[in-house]
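Appendix B, example 12.
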Amino acid sequence: MARCPYRNVAAKPYGDRRGPQSGGGKTSWTPDELSELPWLEEFGTTEATNWLARRGVGHGPNAGRISLPGNLLLEGLRAGQGVTVTARHFVEAEITSGQIIELFREPENSGYHLVTGDFPLRPAAKTFIAWLRWQAGKM
């Protein structure tokens, strides 16, 4: 199994008056409360809806969803345009510095898993798996 950074929901602490910063210092958000905020998603994905559904929220983001290219998603987050689901690794520095706040954190054992069959792996597959494990160990 390859280790992977866990995902979280994050937002900029200042900006849009509907954002988390308007909660008067609120530090704990339920998934239902988070569904009332604007969400940023990469084109062609439904991460916000899927994330909310896995937590019992029967609808997608009520305040809207902004779809944009992946390279602009974190820029929108940093600009205070909404909240997003992302790998913590991508926003670790901003969380540490206080530029972005973490609204919800997944358990550390969540993520991607590497599954192989009960048969010998080809050399190329062994090399690929070794590389994946090495990459996961760097996070």
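Residues 123-137 form the longest helix (15 residues). The CA atoms of residues 36 and 62 lie 5 Å apart.
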